[in-house]
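Hi team,

Below is the intake form for TFIIB-type zinc ribbon-containing protein from Anaeromicropila herbilytica. Please confirm the fields before the structure is written into the shared record.

FORM ID: S-0412
PROTEIN: TFIIB-type zinc ribbon-containing protein
ORGANISM: Anaeromicropila herbilytica
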Amino acid sequence: MSESIGQVSIPSDHDGFVLLQCPLCGEFFKIKPEDYYADDVLEVWCPSCGLKSNNYFTDDVHELVGKKAMNFVEDYIYGEMKKMEKKLKGGVISLKVNNKPKHLEERPILAGVEALEIFKYPCCKREAKIKTLYKICGSYCPFCGVRYDEYR
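The structure came back. Fields below:
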């Protein structure tokens, strides 16, 4: 059996960047989805701490995915129990399935964190939105990990 819980839409800001969060240092940054999924981008580095992670989804994304999964599982179990109720009707064993489970609220994700500025990384010829502090004090290129120690 292969079923889908649906899709989670992560909105972009007015410049086309999506919000990401480093699970290692907790800092937020933004990159464009086409850069994140580009064939020549093998890994993504955090512009703040310079470390790599497998996942940069924000807590809001994780929460929404968890709620969608829980709602899906509860609906599936309810549906299977209703089928079993029909099969057992009139037999020696009976089953009564009551109320359908109440869904957890699936609030849409907001673009959030607008206090980030575009920084152009000359090494990869790509842009990211980072904190102004990192533009001044230094940051790592999210696409190759090269360190930039001063504003350019």
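SUMMARY LINE: The helical segments are 33-36, 59-88, 132-137.

Thanks, M.
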